[in-house]
Design goal:
Helix 2 packs parallel to helix 3. With about 525 residues, this protein is an alpha/beta fold. Helix content is about 40%, strand content about 10%. A hairpin with a 7-residue loop joins strand 3 and strand 4. The protein has 11 helices and 12 strands. The protein starts with about 40 loop residues before the first strand and ends in a 5-residue tail after the last helix.
């Protein structure tokens, strides 16, 4: 008998080991809005429900034909500035991007699976200030899509929410907007005409013969009031509905796709980019304090190597437990969607989105744990209250040590779920970059990111008309997630082992010489 799905379990607040094992730093249990670093490029993410006309809004901003902005369903479109117009599709499982046509009938290589993102370079002056990103419809995000979107919004810096006049905010959209407001990310709202225009009924719109049915003066009836602007009424109604649920967005600016709204929106976005660019640049000093000062080792650093070993082992164990619980919850969601939702044909896209969110979560947990290990070890060897420059010197030394470690080089790879429910590794330059829906600046953390995705063979297998057996899909998903859990467990153990060795070598050298060498 095949084992059933694991139950959904909330992650406990403390999973530190027993006895005198040191506690691991608190780990994030979900991916939230990322805090942009000064090196992150500015971007505006366009978000909204399907049918709201996001593509038309972006086309108006750039004065383009909307057909040029077409991408496969679920893929993100990243619009960047470039002297020459180029288009490339970044597909997980490949190290190099593919040339991608402006429409689906254009000549080009057949893609085994939809790309995570399509980059379009244009010479429009607006893109000199920031990148524009068209994301997936909010109705298709699901549980895993929201954290992926929130992470990108935080790194980009601004959100452009597009909603039609006859659409209402859903619970998923309100959650997304509330998280964005809590992170103090500016939101720009654009209201577009609905399927029946602005008012839902043309009878409320002013017309040239609107006064034909008005009785003449002296008939004892009140004279007609001023004409009602259906555009202003629609925008006001949407704003009131939003503020009743997310009052923190009271300062958000609203625009209607009407008249000169595109020019007004363009000026507002450029103004935000100027202010945000100055803010990020001012937070990036040319030199951190302590980058070139002499740092002495404390008189008695104690048994710091043993403490470092125990702490890395504790953190690795805790992260493995977190990821196992998260994969159990993913299994439940996938089975539910196979049976009651997307079915077998939608399984690859659903699971790929879950793996994208899992990759972000695992990366954030490893990064925070390594930062805690580093700070604790530096405090034992050099004492407390070290300048930021000293910490940065140690980070650079550890990263340099990792480049010489064969085991560390094996971590820089993509884990691909195959059509046989196995996991294959793909290393090489560009392999990890192809998995990002919205790529950011080069990482400054010690470890490379965790990267998990579905291979093109999974799409080909489950979208074949003959492979529509629900029970087979459930069994395949269970085996695939189990393989992902085992591979991630091994990967996490290797990550903290290479950190222990590299950091230990840097600190041992400092202890032997009595000072931190440059």
């Amino acid at each position: 008998m095949k084992p059933g799905p694991l139950p959904s379990v909330d992650v406990p607040g403390d999973l530190s080991g027993p006895g005198d094992l040191p506690r691991c730093a608190p780990l994030p249990t979900r991916v939230g809005v990322a805090k942009p670093g000064p090196e992150e490029p500015l971007g505006v993410l366009a978000v909204g429900p399907g049918g709201a006309g996001r593509r038309a809004v972006l086309a108006d901003l750039l004065e383009l034909d909307p057909t040029l902005l077409g991408v496969p369903d679920g893929s993100w479109l990243v619009l960047r500035h470039g002297a020459t117009a180029t288009r490339a599709a970044y597909v997980p499982g490949y190290r190099q991007p593919h040339t991608y046509g402006a429409d689906r009938t254009a000549a080009g290589p057949a893609l085994a699976r939809p790309p995570r993102r399509v980059e379009l370079h244009l010479s429009d002056p607006l893109l000199r200030h920031f990148s524009l990103v068209d994301t997936a419809d909010t109705g298709t995000l699901g549980v895993a899509g929201v954290p992926v979107l929130l992470d990108a919004v935080g790194r980009a810096g601004a959100l452009l929410f597009v909603v039609a006049a006859d659409q209402a905010f859903t619970a998923t959209e309100l959650t997304l907007l509330a998280e964005t407001a809590r992170a103090d990310v500016p939101v720009f709202f654009v209201v577009t005409p609905g399927s029946t225009g602005w008012s839902g009924s043309d009878s409320t719109a002013p017309t040239e013969d609107a006064g034909a049915s008005v009785p003449p003066p002296g008939a004892g009836l009140p004279s007609p009031g001023p004409a009602v602007d259906p555009v202003a009424v629609t925008v006001a109604a949407h704003r009131a509905a939003l503020l009743s649920a997310v009052p923190a967005l009271v300062e958000a600016r609203w625009f209607a796709l009407h008249g000169d709204a595109a020019a007004d929106l363009r000026r507002a976005l450029v103004g935000w980019a100027v202010d945000e660019g100055l803010r990020r640049a001012s937070s990036d000093p040319p030199m951190l304090p302590g980058e070139h000062v002499r740092v002495n080792v404390v008189a008695d650093p104690g048994d710091w190597p043993e403490q470092l070993e125990r702490q890395t082992r504790t953190c690795a164990q805790r992260i493995r437990q977190h990821l196992a619980l998260e994969l159990a919850n993913i299994h439940l969601r996938v089975v539910q969607e196979i049976v009651f939702g997307v079915g077998c044909a939608g399984l690859p896209q659903l699971l790929d989105r879950e793996m994208e969110a899992l990759s972000l979560l695992a990366t954030a947990q490893c990064d925070r744990a390594v930062r805690g290990i580093l700070d604790d070890a530096l405090g034992r060897v050099f004492g407390a209250s070290l300048p930021d420059g000293v910490r940065q010197r140690v980070v650079k030394a550890v990263r340099f040590g990792l480049t010489e470690d064969r085991l560390a080089r094996e971590l820089d790879r993509v884990l691909l779920v195959t059509s046989t429910a196995g996991v294959a590794g793909l290393a090489g330059d560009g392999a990890i970059d192809a998995l990002a829906g919205y790529p950011g600046a080069a990482r400054t953390e010690i470890l490379p990111p965790v990267a998990v995705a579905l291979s093109g063979g999974c799409w080909q297998h489950w979208r074949s008309p003959g492979n529509n057996d629900v029970n087979e899909a459930r069994a395949w998903a269970q085996r695939a997630l189990r393989e992902v859990e085992l591979e991630l467990a091994r990967d996490v153990s290797r990550r903290f082992e290479v950190v222990r060795l590299a950091l230990g070598a840097v600190l041992s050298d400092a202890v032997d010489h009595g000072i931190l060498l440059a």
